[in-house]
Amino acid sequence: MTTTTHHLSPAFPGRAPWGTASKLRAWQQGAMDEYLKQQPRDFLAVATPGAGKTTFALTLCSWLLHHHVVQQVTIVAPTEHLKLQWAEAAARIGIRLDPEYSSGPVGKEYHGVVVTYAGVGVRPMLHRNRCEQRKTLVVLDEIHHAGDSRSWGEACLEAFEPATRRLSLTGTPFRSDTNPIPFVEYAEGNDGVRKSVADYTYGYGTALQDGVVRPVIFLSYSGNMRWRTKAGDEIEARLGEPMTKDAVSQAWRTALDARGEWMSAVLRAADQRLTEVRKAVPDAGGLVIATDQDAAREYAKLIREITGRKATVVLSDDSGASKRIEEFRQSDDRWMVAVRMVSEGVDVPRLSVGVYATTISTPLFFAQAVGRFVRSRRRGETASVFLPTIPTLLTFAHEMEVERDHVLDKPKKDAEEDPYAEEAELLAAAEREEDEDTDDGDQLPFEALESDAVFDRVTYDGAEFGMQAHPGSEEEQDYLGIPGLLEPDQVQMLLQKRQARQIAHSRKKPDAEADLLELPADRRPVVTHKELMELRKELNGLVGAYVHQSGKPHGVIHTELRRVCGGPPSAEATAGQLRQRIAKVREWATRMR
Length: 593
Prior knowledge:
By secondary structure, the protein is of the alpha/beta class. Helix content is 39%, strand content 17%.
């Protein structure tokens, strides 16, 4: 068995582009030093996507095999594609892993196997027996997946409890639920909440300073959306404006509809950005992350219309998906469209431009998706990700550098202590609106009617830049044309200059031409529901007072307000519509005095 000081592949740190140790990046060497000092049975390494977790893990595999601490290796990966990727990476440093293993004895030519969490879930005793027969290192890649279902977590515990050593890896050690993750230590904080404890952490912020990952520029697009609800109501709203959770979801779906103008405009802008990046990075590629297979195929058609070139389409249940990803990785084709296949772990380092065209809104998925674009090959490469102006996504973009732990308990607070309790209660009440005439009757299918796109803002390093501008305008082109090779501080400086130029230009416009919200992004904070809750509370209070004044029931007043002012029920009304109804109720009350 050879040690890892030789035979390193081009993907390994021996060929790292700059400023790192001769063989391992500084963080990888630091993690190795920590492991060798502790010699623990369980070790959790948290490293930002793109930092090189595979390299660290295989270096450790090689050391443990070479020093006879273990006799065999089992890698557990989230997907079938990643099994092949692990086996190929291991082979480049002399570790032979069988990615096709399903049962029985392993061939003598192999040092171990690569399996999926789902595979372990089907046959946990098979893997337990292997661990009991020979000293085994188990590498649990993206360990948070072991909490995806109780059966997977229990299977991992059953299968790998006898293992000699266990190495857990993740780029995102947090989950939206409270399912405990096997072999992860949890410690209780002063607030009584248990959180995961990592043995070594290498966050995005540190990796960015080290030049290991690319800086990410988020370009968000707003616009007017119009759709028909299941109740048959036609609703119009602007992305980014305060509205209910349901209305945000429906506006988001409308934006992502391939038949609307929004998606076409954003794909066109993303392709222009890719063209700019390719001036400095000739093989730069783009990835559209779609919600489902139908949408993926529709987006591929739009890309063909925009670019005149075919996009690679990767569907998660397609048997040829791995082959297509590999072909795209080795080509210089412009675009790939995928559903869930490349949300994590898939290594296509040339991906530089992304379009987040899915309604998945968990921090885990968002971080993994953005992680596809941050892997750096040479200093100065930047990543650009296009988003709809959805408050949740903008918050995730702001928090790119925040290190998280997996929270096992939800904080328990009394309503008086919980600052969000009143807002949550108001939202629930507003969405019920028992007094309003909101009988659904015969349900209709949700239908996206029309959408348009407006360049909204750029988010970078927690700060916001830009003012709203029309697609195709000189102002938008200014941001799409940012060079593809820049140092992180140069990105910040350039964005500040672009914004200053845009503000100066807008001040020269005649009032008649200033038809967009001429407000710099740094003065447009990420919106929350708070303002909307206050407006809805005020409206309900005024309607309640008018009930006593007029003698009319709540439902009649709400219905009359909708008839006079237009718009949907209060639960789905925008801030502007609520203000209009508040003014109207006040007008009615004044007349009756």
